[in-house]
Protein: Aluminum-activated malate transporter 12
Organism: Heracleum sosnowskyi
Amino acid sequence: MSVLMVNELESVKIYLYVLMMKAKRFPGLAWRTMWRVGKEDPRRVIHSLKVGLSLTLVSLLYLMEPLFKGIGSNAIWAVMTVVVVLEFTAGATLCKGLNRGLGTLAAGSLAFLMEFIATEYGRAFRAIFIGVAVFVIGAAATYLRFLPYIKKNYDYGVVIFLLTFNLITVSSYRVDNVLKIAHDRFYTIAIGCGICLLMSLLVFPNWSGEDLHNSSVAKLEGLAMSIEACVSRYFKDHELEPDISRDKSEEDPIYMGYKAVVDSKAYDETLALHASWEPRHSRHCYRYPWQQYVKLGAVLRSFGYTVVALHGCLETEIQTPRSVRALFKDPCTRLAGEVSKALRELADSIRKRRQCSPEVLSDHLHEALHDLNAALKSQPRLFIGSKTNQTSNMLALAAATARQTTDKHLSSVKTDSSALHEWKLTKRVSEKTKEAERKVLRPTLSKIAITSLEFSEALPFAAFASLLVETVARLDIVIEEVEELGRMASFKEFDPDEITVTCEKPKVETASTYNNNLPSHAAD
């Protein structure tokens, strides 16, 4: 008993020590996290200060006696409006602010109409009328939320409409001065929305359109970086070792390059929606083609899936020998370099809002394709097979290896000698033996049988090369979408003297950056 108590005390001491060390490290960890978040995007710090300033301004409705006497306790609605409406970008704030204002105005007007009709008759009729009105309006407004256009643009406004209408209509049955209360609430909500709009549009504004524009540039540069890094790692001098653990994926430059592309669908659509609400702050006063950015993002995601598959070739169990890969290193490296160069030229044209070069698909790219084709034709034995006579030997080797591994495994499964001689356990041990044999034979025979195929040396590289050629085919589609974007957005004409393609490492937004900058209702 005393031994158990000593063990429990020791475990409690260890737990308390670990807890104390975590508490000691918490302030430093919290500070480093806050610093990292602000360093990733300094606009977050500015937005936080804007929210604090807005809340301070609406709090004056409570703190200053003259303002409080004029508005009263309804000033809390202004504070609630600032908390709910003020978002990271101007487009998101405009979307929520106008939705809240229009929803409140429409609900108030309809509620007053219902009140005017209901007061003409008795109290019993008034109660029935209010109940029917709440049912009909609630059901109709909720059904409207399922319409795609309403759900996309005015879903928040319909929710505010329902809330305000029910508050005014139902409370009017018991409260006499509901007209004055609704009037004061509408003014306080308008004050809150006005402060939010002023802060979003005039004080260091963050434009959703600019974020969408810059994210398209970053995605093109990230894909270019991933392709180059993929090919460079594939043709390294050392043998590739498959790594199926995903713990280090966040630090992998290849992964970071295409992750922001394949995860960008919701982010692009949200930014395009909010950008459509923003004023025409550029030199063009017509409607900007934000949906074309969404189409470009879809094409880039399709391109990104090819890069994902290309990255997967680096982590397969069966790899082409280094000596075979070295035969095709130069043409593959040149082809990847030309594809990356074209992607960076497209990114540069979007960044500078100019038409892309007519020769973005240069002759060097076609020459690299021909060189790769010639290199493949120069090694026919790799692809027509030179292991016909070795198949039976490889299978025999597989069986021998599997038998040795099985014997080794069975020796570890055995129990003590007295238990093994018992007749009652013979059947159970035989079942365990068969199960262990199957577990060992299956992966061993599968892997050796695959490597014994006639084209086993060329098969992994053939997959890699075909995916690399596929990036060239998908590059044509990307160029078409970028050219269409340039025409619809009236980008300036191409000038050969302005071409400056940067090869710096792009700042690609991670998933955390995407989610942190999303409006609250979009992130949910």
